[in-house]
Amino acid sequence: MIIIVYFQMDALIQEMQNATTGVPIKCQKTFLSTIPSVFTGFDVVNWLKKRLNIDENDSNEAAHIANLLCKFGYFFPVYESKVIVVKEDTSLYRFQCPYYWPSQAVEPNNVAYAIHLAKRSMRNKQKHGLEDYEQTALTKLQKMLCDKWKFICDQAQEQVSLAKERRRTDKAILDSQERAFWKVHRPPPGQTKYVEDGPKRNFQPSQMAARKRKNRDLLQKEVIHWRNAINRCRMKTSTAIESYLSRLEQFEDNDPFIAGVQPSNPWITEDTTYFDMNSDTIEIPTEQRIKKWSVSFHELLSDPIGLQEFENFLKKEYSQENIRFWAACEQLKFCPVSDIPSRVERIYEEFLTSGSSHEVNIDSKTMESVQINRKSAKPSRFTFEAAKEHIYTLMKKDSYPRFLRSDHYKTLLSNALTPFSKKK
């Protein structure tokens, strides 16, 4: 409804600006200067009477419509006035730039208003000086937008520099239009604001979820939402295809459907040798399986045999407490809720207590984060997350490369199982 009303106002203003049938626009000469592109309040009221077929004796209705158009920002008084009103006399008015019309939905946000006020404060105080309420608003905005104030000052300075390149007449018209726009959207104290900004949020989005009651219907909607989210594409198709191709090239030798199955295919025959050779309990892993550990540190730790061999290697280097601490934190994530407090204390005493036999080496900042989480009212599964990430990064950058270069890894490769035949 509001948009339709704005469009009707736009159409009426466009008729008023018509060069032949609209309101007569002229240049008003004064004693020392000329005021360009203005019209009188008497002319606009008379034009509205003729256009809307209003009785000549009833000028109040035409004056009321003219006042509404003025208060909505379609035209404005040339001379500064705290009260936006149309007088049926020789008072001068000027049409507003279409960019500032309400139908264009220009957002009058605080940053734009701060740039406008800062720009005026940089210019001639006599012509562009701020009024008391504007100076108060500028002070408040400076505190509110302190993190953006340098950007605001730079923008204001840039606009002042551009204004110096314009002609004097154009500069005066643009300045008056901008000031009129802000007088409509940021009126002086005691004045009514006629343009609506739309609904505003009275609370933060994080508070919205807390206000909802967790009933059965809401939980069912959440389940449906997350199921749909699983299948929703989160990246460009071309990027996803490139990622799949890269992974295919990297793991091609380990994919039984592409590289073939050794020694026989259990999906076709009844021979289960392939599953037996790649089980988690086998003593000697296959060569392909050991080579897969060199692809990434994640692949090594994801394989139970790889994790055990990496721990055996760290024993020789007297740093096995790192992998044991990481494994204990992983087990903490999936343990029963009732066991969390006891496991947290056990992990802390074994790995983080000063002087313990398996103490891990972490920095003071990480230790402080662990202490805060541990002393909370209810310890969580992620109490040691910061320390775990620190140890994981340390092993990935230091221990893992040395493991791949070590004699231990080379011995595993030389003694690895190699299937005697290859059948697809």
From TrEMBL:
PROSITE patterns per record: DEP, RGS
Q: What is this protein called?
A: Regulator of G-protein signaling 7
How is this protein annotated for GO cellular component? cytoplasm; neuron projection; plasma membrane
Q: Where in this chain does the record put each DEP domain?
A: 19-97
Q: CDD domains this protein is in? A: DEP_RGS7-like, GGL
| GO terms under biological process | G protein-coupled receptor signaling pathway; intracellular signal transduction; negative regulation of signal transduction; regulation of G protein-coupled receptor signaling pathway
Transmembrane helix is among the record's keywords: no
Q: Which organism is it from?
A: Lottia gigantea
The reply to whether 4Fe-4S figures as a keyword in the UniProt entry is no
- What is this organism's lineage? Eukaryota, Metazoa, Spiralia, Lophotrochozoa, Mollusca
Q: Which Pfam families match?
A: DEP, G-gamma, RGS, RGS_DHEX
Instruction: Kindly list the GO molecular function terms attached to this UniProt entry.
Output: GTPase activator activity
Key words of the record: Signal transduction inhibitor
Location of the RGS domain: 296-413
